[in-house]
Design a protein that fits this description.
Elements lengths: L1 E6 L2 E5 L4 E3 L4 E2 L3 E5 L5 E8 L6 E4 L2 E2 L2 H18 L7 E8 L9 H16 L6 H11 L3 H4 L4 E4 L12 E5 L6 E7 L9 H11 L3 H6 L1 H13 L3 H20 L10 H15 L4 E5 L5 E6 L3 H9 L6 E5 L6 E3 L4
Parallel strand pairs: 7-9
Antiparallel strand pairs: 1-6, 1-16, 2-5, 3-4, 5-10, 6-9, 7-8, 10-11, 12-14, 12-15, 13-14
Bound molecules: ligand DP6.
The site of ligand DP6 has 15 residues, from helix 5.
Length: 331
Amino acid sequence: MEALAVAHPNIALVKYWGKRDSALNLPREGSLSLTLAGMESVTHVAFDGAFAADELVLGGNPAPEASLRKARRILDEVRRRAGGRLAALHARVESRNDFPTGAGLASSASGFAALACAAAGAAGLDLSPAELSVLARLGSGSACRSVLGGFVEWKRGERADGTDSHAIAVAPRDHWDVVMLVAVVAEGPKGVSSTEGMERTRRTSPYYEPFLGSIPADLDAARAAVVARDLDALGVVMERNCLRMHAAMLAAEPALIYLRGGSLAVIERVGQLRSAGARAYFTIDAGPNVKVLCERAGADAVESALAAVPGVARVIRALPGGGARVVDPLA
Ligand code: DP6
């Protein structure tokens, strides 16, 4: 009983930063993202009576305990749903990312989406996209969005068991010719994980509630802008939503300072490019790298301008990508 699956990272245009239930990764508010092509996590899952315990191997090395715990939430749910003989079997999970080294893109979203997909496939479960998304969410919240391709909304949901908190499609990947440029400012892992950073923001930041209060209107505006392919309208929302999230992070105790000098230099450059007539908008996650959204037509000029900003090591270009899927290991 084994399966192989691939999934891509996604970048939030309206952010998820705050949980109402940390065991199930249920968000306080919804979020909206773009799944990216060109980078992928490839994950193999096997259930076998010969395994004495669940095992997770990341890029050839045993995974840290925290990652194994998260993976186990997905495996336990798959075992519960499958029942029968499978309920008692341990799993071996092997995952690797083919991202350009130090891309500064979260690999947890693509990794757990691929894991959910491969585990369900290995167990012979026939799950709907919504059910797969719920499964991926147990590993990492943002992973529930990587189950789908293109523009994706994660519905906050109302139920305490989380069955209605999952991704839905807003628009397919070919809906809009956009490009996401990742200006890499610093390579290497971030200091404080998203899970811990969110919890610290919730406990200590006076701006946490005001930030969350601004999300429902941002979500409505972003969704409408995506459907209308209105980059300027989407850009205004994604920048203010990102800056409000960072404002809440900066006001936490101890402060969560994910931005670096290079991040601010890129923000400034994007503003200058817009003043000069370019259409490009930034967003930044829990790390220093800046993601800039633009239309394909103007992307070359924006890319070279970003590459020339002092402090930018390189720029990675990504197009809209597809959802998580089981693949043939021999293909
Ligand atoms: C800033 O999904 O990594 O990228 O649910 O605790 O695993 P956990 O957090 P995670 O958080 C992502 C935070 C973000 C914003 C976003 O992707 O929406």
